[in-house]
Amino acid sequence: KILAARDISSVAGYMKSKDCKNVMMMLGAGVSTSAGIPDFRSPETGLYSNLARLNLPHPEAVFEINFFRRNPVPFYTLAHELYPGKFRPTITHSFIRLLAEKGLLHTCFTQNIDTLERRAGVPEEKIIEAHGSFATQRCIDCSETFDDNDMKRHILQKKIARCVSCGGYVKPDIVFFGEALPEIFIRAVPNLRKADLLIVMGTSLTVQPFASLAERVDDSCPRVLINLDHVGSFGSRSDDVALLGKCDEVVRDLCKELGWDDELNQLWDE
Ligand code: OAD
After folding, report:
1. Is the dihedral of CA 66, 69, 70, 71 positive or negative?
2. Could you report the per-residue pLDDT of 180-196, keeping only the tens digit for each?
């Protein structure tokens, strides 16, 4: 057992010790809800319970590649609402940057496509966007890439982009259900064995293979869950700590314990 107790001050104590060098993070939509971006599965506020207006056979269809082939309109409608640029990173995103500035962040695995980690100043080489992002796009038929500015215009005008070569539908390089995860993700997974600490934040841990990353760290590696509710297998290992609550609030408390609160506020004010 590494942690003195399963609580926030033991986590902070360990983070300040010389034994904690490589921190890995796993993020989900819950870290961006305070920025105004809905998550997927929260009852009432989550995207999947608010998609009735898009006439989908089932909510996840909006992110299914076979459904998109038949009807790209629901995805484009959603993309218009979720398009990055409209949202400011949260205090939780600033905390991830602070971890990087302290030299503690090894890799930040994120399921989010909102790019708020980069916008908060987390170094790009530390971020693995496991479900892709809106940064690039291509034709779903011939894989020809499509111009960034043209794509932006289409999404902002709610128009469906078509491939200049073959006329197929263009889709941002977001990983849909039924598609493989990016190479960069697959290459980064073995690094989890180097983790001295895993912090999982704002995810229901329901989507594979991402959810299984939490099992990839050594049995001896402390795992911290910061989430509204209990998820995954947290609690099954002796050094699992669940800090339940809103991630912005838990992160503030953790930074107080670490004596990092001024630095956190400075980054957040930038
Ligand atoms: P979910 O919506 O499934 O889960 C979000 C989790 O964050 C839930 O457990 C919430 O209770 C929690 N949460 C919400 N707000 C929070 C807050 N302020 N503080 C702390 N916790 C909070 O979202 P993901 O797990 O990210 O995939 O979903 C995984 C994937 O499913 C997404 O990447 C997306 C989706 O289908 C694709 O689009 C490919």
Report:
1. positive
2. 999 999 999 999 999 99
